[in-house]
User: Fold this.
Amino acid sequence: MEDENSIFPMEEALEMILFFNKEGIISYANAAARTKLGYGEPGGSEDGLRGRSIGEVFPHPFRDGRERTDYSLGGEQQKLVAYRRNKTCFPVEARIAPGRGGGELFVCMANDILEQEHLGREIGQIREEARQAAKAKSEFVANVTHELRTPVNGILGNVRELLGDVRDDRTKKALLLMERCCGDMNKIIDNILDFSKLDAGKFVLESRRFNIRNMVDYVREQHRGRIAEKGLDFFVTVSPQVPEYVIGDELRMVQILNNLLSNALKFTAVGKITLQLLRTARSGDKVELFFIVSDTGIGIGEEDRDKLFQSFSQVDASISRKYGGTGLGLSICKQLVELMGGRIEVESEKNRGSTFSFSVWAGADGEDASQPLSDDIAGDANDDIRTAFRQMARQAREEGDGPEDVRRYGTPENREALRRNLSKLILCVEMENWEKAEMFMEAARQLAEGAPPEVKRAALRLKMAIQKESYEKAAAEHEKLSEALGREEERDGEHRHGL
Ligand code: ADP
Assistant:
């Protein structure tokens, strides 16, 4: 075997290598084969395997070489059991091929896979345990949330009944607050339930025919009032190419849009919010719908954008009190969008606004599917089209009625917006609607971003009073902030006059 060994160092190879003739008699075994099979000391040169039958090492399928003459086993790599001299055995992965000499000589190369198999079994076991644990966890979450819903609805029912009877204002206010808290709790329970179902892969989408323009109208109506109340513009457009009817899960599409629009409203103090619906592709009897929700709010820094769609993550933990929420909303949106065959993306710039866009595939109604196929768009081209639409949305976000002037502290537009927010804020404080008061407070804080320290400090004190939900303190701090703003405005006027 010397010349072979000089080309390929078989003797030192980690693989077991055995040569045998057509009668199955072994003529050579390398060091790895001799040691592993117990026919020689590690490092020794004695070849105790020479002259033995290959059937001693692999009784299956060669049993003494007599029952089987096709030694090559088709030349394929396969799993065999190798027997040691002491009759113990271990699994190997082996390939047997005819050597030189036209079927006179065979070579077997085998790897010990005992450890690999152990490892494989262990990994399998760990995986199974993790699967069981995840299943137990999601079942637990599903049960707990279900059990929570019953008492919450019990409280809600009773509160509503009492609300019909009470006359006294204080009690009524307390009951209204309880009603709102129950509503919030139900929303959180819904989110956790959705999340655990999605996590466990048990979420089933509905597939029904519905009028998509009506759906968009419904979503618009739900948000219009609150957006207008905050003094923001709201534009909704549906491209004429979007079919009248589609087949899909209407409720879940509404859920995603509600989430994105509520976030847009939460994080926008000035400017506008837009919702656009387009049809970006059609393939067979399916259409791709593309939704864009854009705002001119606080925006999201680049470093935080990756975290957005992760469960339980809020960009800045300190804002969770201010805006509420569990950080599950976008993660649920992402999973729902993916279940509908689409993708959700965000494009944003700090202090300038955000554009969330997502695509979903829905069944096309018969009417739409009969349109000429030439208007189908596929693959990469489709990606380009979505990117172009997103860019258009960003440009639209940046232009318009000059939100820049409103944002820049000290401009007449900014002063006007500040005054408007503070007067709405004090109304909410008087009605002890703290949630809304916080919303106007945040808008005021953003509008006072470039103000002198005196104004900023007054704004911070007012914010703390609102967070403490103290009417007296909030009213007093509101007055102080208004005075500070007045003084500052006067100084600014004198300064300008002097120039
Ligand atoms: P939550 O239910 O707590 O609002 P989401 O998953 O909907 O959770 O949002 C997670 C976080 O992403 C928010 O807390 C906020 O920090 C950020 N975010 C989402 N939408 C916007 C937006 N339009 N503008 C700025 N920040 C946003």
In short: The first helix runs from residue 2 to 7. The longest strand covers residues 272-283. The chain has four domains: 2-112, 124-200, 208-400, 408-496. Confidence is low (pLDDT under 50) at residues 317-323, 372-379.
